[in-house]
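Project standup — Tuesday

K.O.: blocked on the structure for the chain from last sprint. Re-posting the sequence here as requested.
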Amino acid sequence: MWERYGADGHEGAVGALLEDGTEPGPVFFDTGSGSHVHESTAWPVYDGTLRAPVAARMRGKCACGWRGEADYPIDWDLVDRRHPEEYDTSGPEGDWERHMDEVAARMVPLPGDVADLLSRLRERLSEIDDENPLAALRVVGELEAMAASIGPYAARRIAFEDVPDEAVAEGLGITEAKARSRLNRYGFMSW
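H.V.: unblocked you, prediction finished:
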């Protein structure tokens, strides 16, 4: 899975495509005991073994529902079954990165001074964590307290201004479900 910091709900992965261009359902692995049956949609499981369908192509996909337009052939003769992560998946990953660039471009921009301050704080907090993890935890607590005191006011203003769900999610660069969760976390429950 590929992730970007701050992009909740936008985990990327390689998606498998069958010869007809459809995306196969999960492959189930019955281990023979218990009621739990493991399932997977990881592209390497679509290699034809254990009655799984054979993927012919791959594309980028995102947990938000996005699917890449381009697809890339899978040469199963070059896939090391024990180390499929070594197979070249740069095409789908690059497509997902472009998707994430588009998501980021639609986000509400941070004020320049705040973006700089957050960048410096992230860097300094990493240094503090290396030097004194207890101090780092205290700083994180202070940040959480600030978020807890300011977040509810921002969430209420968003509600009073009747900002549409899609606009909240897009502005934050996260999915609608994650946006609802964030507003709920700040005590605004009427979404």
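K.O.: great, moving the ticket to review. Residues 112-185 form one domain. Residues 1 and 122 are 23 Å apart (CA to CA).
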